[in-house]
Write a structure and sequence with these properties.
This protein is α+β, with helices and mostly antiparallel strands. Helix content is about 55%, strand content about 15%. Strand 6 and strand 7 form a beta hairpin. The radius of gyration is 33 Å and the shape is elongated.
């Protein structure tokens, strides 16, 4: 019985192909919009997670506090220094790395080529804190860091500019005015979420950087990586307590340093993109309701057109429920066809958007299943009233209808 009803519904759809297509269009656009928005939003969220993870896992970033715009401060400004690093290294527990770093943008030269790159002075623990591997050569040793040796590692962008696919280890490049021997190449990290090329870098021992590049003993940043499974909020509180002690900040004074928890930042950004995706999906879902109204409208027209047919079926013994099921199935089939076409179109548009925006393509089976179920429900809900109207027609009046 149900199979025959579905066959009749499909025959009715084919018989009025253009009208059926126009009816489907609202559902197609609605489903496609919902799937495109949610898939692109999920891809954006994944891209945010990837960008944050490139900075390092369970990472906390310590920097000196800066005065406000007006120059007024409620604290005594002071740069980070070796005492802060030493205090954190000795007293912090449940961390896998504590690494100081200073950066400066300088000109790097090799032969006739030159490039402006970010030069970072740091130590060997930097690569642990930032989850940054050396893919060719080696990292500098503790002895090289203590001795201020003129050695460096380069990022993939610098390698491509100077050496192409060749092996740069052992070669000498000029960083600002100093000659530096390349001992390794860093793993490519690509562009950050702010459009910065993270591979356009040169890494050297901190003491070398301070003496030959910066000309001072200041430290810009201290990276602290918590051990896996340890709450970063706990480590953050420990860092604040240790630094207040080493920097001799009185209880009534404000911190003259800042500690950023990259895990919390990642969670906040992910939450924001998730909320935005939900809002865009909900807005796109409004078009599904519009499509449902279109189905109800066309089904009312279909009932009116087929009044005599309904009368004949009732006169030869069909029950009201048979008529009701026939029109409900027809509306559901229309809606489901629109949903299937909308899913194909939505995934295609999301794939194109992912390629264009360089974000991961993250389709969700749950969203696809929900779109199919919701489109079927739209057909049943908005097809119920026209179906009920057809089922309640009086057979005599229906047979008289022209």
């Amino acid at each position: 019985m149900l199979f025959e009803t579905i066959r009749l519904a499909l025959r009715s759809v084919r018989r009025n192909a253009l009208r059926s297509f126009l009816t489907l269009l609202g559902i197609v656009i609605g489903v496609a919009a919902v799937i495109t928005m949610i898939t692109v939003g999920s891809g954006t969220t994944e891209k945010v997670k990837q960008d944050i993870s490139k900075l390092g896992s369970n990472l906390l970033v310590v920097q000196a506090a800066r005065p406000g715009r007006g120059g007024t401060t409620n604290f005594t400004p002071r740069q980070l220094d070796d005492r802060d690093v030493e205090g954190l290294s000795k007293e912090l527990e449940n961390v896998k790395a504590v690494s100081p770093a200073s950066q400066r943008q300088v000109r790097v030269v090799y032969g006739a080529e030159n490039i402006s790159a970010q030069v970072t002075g740091t130590d060997a623990e930097y690569f642990i804190a930032r989850d940054w591997d050396v893919v060719l050569g080696r990292a500098f040793t503790d002895a090289e860091v203590r001795g201020g040796t003129n050695v460096c590692l380069i990022g993939q962008t610098v390698r491509d500019q100077f050496f192409g696919a060749g092996d740069p280890t052992g070669e000498a490049i000029r960083v600002n005015r100093m000659s530096c021997r390349v001992i390794g190449v860093l793993e490519p990290k690509g562009f950050s979420g702010f459009g910065q090329d993270q591979d356009n870098v040169v890494m050297m021992p901190l003491s070398t950087f301070q003496r030959r590049i910066a000309g001072n003993r200041n430290i810009d940043t201290i990276y602290v990586a918590a051990q896996d499974g340890v709450s970063t909020s706990t480590v953050l509180a420990d860092i604040e307590g240790i630094l207040r002690q080493t920097r001799r900040i009185a209880p009534e004074q404000e911190d003259n340093f800042t500690v950023r928890d990259m895990t919390q930042i990642a969670d906040a950004m992910t939450s924001t993109t998730t909320v935005m995706t939900g809002m865009l999906g909900a807005l796109a879902g409004v078009s599904l309701l519009v499509g449902g109204i279109g189905i109800m409208n066309i089904m009312l027209v279909s009932v009116t057109e087929r009044t005599r047919e309904i009368g004949i079926r009732l006169a030869i013994g069909a029950h009201e429920k048979h008529i009701l099921v026939q029109f409900l199935v027809e509306a559901t089939v229309l809606s489901l066809l629109g949903g299937i076409i909308g899913i194909i179109l939505g995934l295609s548009l999301a794939g194109i958007a992912s390629l264009t925006l360089s974000i991961p393509f993250v389709p969700s089976l749950a969203v696809v299943a929900l779109a199919v179920g919701f489109s079927a429900m739209i057909g049943m809900v908005f097809g119920f009233f026209p179906a009920l109207r057809g089922a309640r027609l009086d057979p005599i009046d229906a047979l008289r209808h022209e």
